[in-house]
């Protein structure tokens, strides 16, 4: 299960990330560095000889040193743990345990478990949850990124990272597929493209400055780096991204937000939809929004008249530039909703 190369598994979104509204809800100890650092977006940073009242400041989670009752080394099964509530329930495909900058204070080993609890379970109830091992106890090294592939199984709402016996972990990443609860979406118009609703970026032409997945992430883009921005195009053509939905749906409203992009917003944009089949080999896309002029630093909203359902939408920007957010509001078809219900039932533990 442990491997140095998770290949396609790391292409899935990080379900634990604070950017997806994940949360570290409990930990056995966080004496030296706060548990919340585990799920911060971005890589861990380090400034040598930066001391607080508890010692060197680390951008990660670090526990105190464990001791045996006699004051010596702890027993082999001694451990610390942290529990993360995922930003959205999902099926896990890979876990990254990153000990960046922890060199003399990293754990000897780790393991990871997952569980699913409906609703909003308090942290106290997690101790009695039914946990499933997804990463067995595995050795760790210092200042290293450890990738563990996970065989797809049931959906989880929480994961528990256990470290043996103590020490520091900079980041925990939990890559997987969001499985939205159809009971929360039935009968509603919602953002079909949103990560938390099972949408994801399937392909894009360019990701030079920032990830296209930013465009469908929760919340507002506060700065340019929190949207999707391409490099300056120097040849004919244009840049694009393709978003997939959790199930076939009708899109009724599109929002193309260029907030924060002032000298680098696209000049124009268009939207097309596609249903089923092989989109890479098939050019029969349906126009949803014709090529339309965009303004810098503006939230553009367009009513769409869609005759056919789709499960993919392609955003073309002309010729290049940055898009802060793409929202595609609509409702799944009856067959699409049935597909979501089957997926929800199939991933039940």
TrEMBL record:
The gene it comes from is alc
Which named protein is this? Probable allantoicase
Q: Its pathway? A: Nitrogen metabolism; (S)-allantoin degradation; (S)-ureidoglycolate from allantoate (aminidohydrolase route): step 1/1
Give the Enzyme Commission number.
3.5.3.4
Q: What is a biological process (GO) this protein takes part in?
A: allantoin catabolic process
Q: Name one Pfam family in it.
A: Allantoicase
Give the reaction(s) catalysed. allantoate + H2O = (S)-ureidoglycolate + urea
Tell me which residues make up the Allantoicase domain: 22-178, 198-332
Write out the entry's keywords from A to Z.
Answer: Hydrolase, Purine metabolism
NCBIfam families, A to Z:
allantoicase
Recorded GO MF terms: allantoicase activity
- In terms of domain of life, where is this protein from? Bacteria
Which species does the entry assign this protein to?
A: Trebonia kvetii
Family in the record:
Belongs to the allantoicase family.
């Amino acid at each position: 299960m442990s491997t140095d190369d998770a290949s396609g598994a790391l292409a899935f979104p990080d379900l634990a990330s604070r950017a997806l509204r994940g949360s570290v809800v409990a930990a056995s100890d966080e004496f030296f560095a706060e548990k919340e650092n585990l799920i911060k977006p971005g890589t861990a940073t380090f400034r040598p000889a930066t001391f607080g009242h508890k010692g060197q400041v680390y951008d990660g989670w670090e526990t105190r040193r464990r001791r045996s009752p006699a004051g010596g080394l702890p027993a082999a099964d001694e451990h610390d743990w942290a529990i993360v509530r995922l930003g959205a329930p999902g099926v896990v495909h890979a876990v990254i345990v990153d000990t960046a900058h922890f060199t003399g204070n990293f754990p000897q080993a780790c393991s990871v478990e997952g569980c699913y609890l409906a609703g909003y379970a308090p942290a106290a109830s997690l101790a009695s949850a039914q946990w499933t091992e997804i990463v067995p106890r595995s050795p760790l090294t210092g200042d290293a990124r450890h990738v563990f592939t996970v065989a797809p199984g049931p959906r989880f709402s929480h994961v528990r990272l256990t470290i043996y016996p103590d020490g520091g972990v900079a980041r925990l990443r939990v890559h997987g597929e969001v499985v939205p609860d159809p009971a929360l979406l039935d009968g509603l118009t919602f953002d079909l493209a949103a990560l938390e609703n099972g949408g994801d970026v399937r392909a894009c032409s360019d990701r030079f400055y920032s990830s296209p997945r930013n465009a469908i992430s929760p919340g507002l883009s506060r700065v340019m780096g929190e949207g999707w921005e391409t490099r300056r195009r120097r040849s004919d053509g244009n840049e694009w991204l393709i978003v997939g939905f959790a199930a076939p749906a009708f899109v009724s409203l599109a929002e193309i937000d260029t907030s924060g992009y002032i000298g680098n917003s696209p000049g124009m944009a268009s939207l097309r939809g596609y249903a089923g089949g092989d989109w890479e080999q098939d050019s029969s896309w349906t126009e949803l929004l014709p090529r339309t002029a965009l303004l810098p630093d503006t939230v553009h909203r367009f009513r769409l008249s869609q005759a056919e359902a789709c499960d993919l939408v392609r955003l073309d920007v002309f010729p290049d530039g940055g898009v802060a957010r793409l929202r595609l509001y609509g409702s799944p078809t009856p067959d699409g909703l049935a597909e979501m219900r089957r997926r929800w039932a199939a991933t039940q533990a």
